[in-house]
């Protein structure tokens, strides 16, 4: 039996049929849908661009060295700054990170590497629900747990509220990062004689570190811009954080300062509100750049 290559299906294939026909219905439909998608992308970006432009225009002119070192001024008094709010924001976000990062990472390791079945399913469901809880509800919860217990608004109460907000973000991103590590890597580690804990701590976790850092920076960026939970927990003050009382007194933050000063009729305080908003935007931009640099290095 011989094969007739001249009459085979491949010999009858016409390469010109692969050329794109600009008049075909499929091509026209694709072009229309691409245009619609591009239009909606522009509609989504325009508000963000307008908000950032307005904040930058209003706030960049107020940037002076004194705003980082001085206290908020009284109404109608020129000068002053919000150094206490910057320090308070760093303190409360730092407290929140110290609580949420180890808890969130360990919880994600348990979910991804050691848990299975209903426990992991229900835990992931609870994490998703927690991530959708409004921040003001988290503030009320932190008020009931921390402020009513200690009888005082404080930086610790604010940090606790921010930790609750950061926790689901860290768990979800770490869980997803660990899932992205190829299963063959785990099998190779076990094949070389490592046990489960050695495989997780020395092989899987280091490979997922860039993505975990991304999740942590995103959580920090969200926590730094939250206002509602701090109104119930840290409140606000015109003074520096009180180290003698171990931060167990009302503490200033950038987001609450911007909220308070933006609604007053005094021009000097409204200018500081825009400067505080500009600093918050810079903080979010900085954390985004850090996350980009961290994810640029891929182990696998």
Average pLDDT figure: 86
- Show unreliable segments: none
Give the helix tally: 10
> What is the 3D form?
globular
**Helix-and-strand structural type:** mainly alpha
Instruction: Report the count of strand segments.
Output: 0
Span between N and C termini? 50 Å
The percentage helix is 55-70%
Give me the strand/helix succession.
HHHHHHHHHH
Largest sheet: none
Q: What proportion strand?
A: under 5%
How would you summarize what this structure contains?
By secondary structure, the protein is mainly α. It has 10 helices and no strands.
Descriptive account of the structure:
It is a single chain. The chain is mostly helical and 300 residues long. Helices cover 69% and strands 0% of the residues. It has ten helices and no strands. It has helices spanning 25-60, 83-114, 118-131, 135-150, 155-180, 183-191, 196-224, 228-233, 254-262, 267-295. Helix 1 packs across helix 10 and helix 3 (118-131) crosses helix 5 (155-180). The longest helix has 36 residues, at 25-60. The two termini are 50 Å apart. The model has no long low-confidence stretch (mean pLDDT 86).
Main attributes of the structure:
about 70% helix; globular; single chain; mainly alpha; about 300 residues
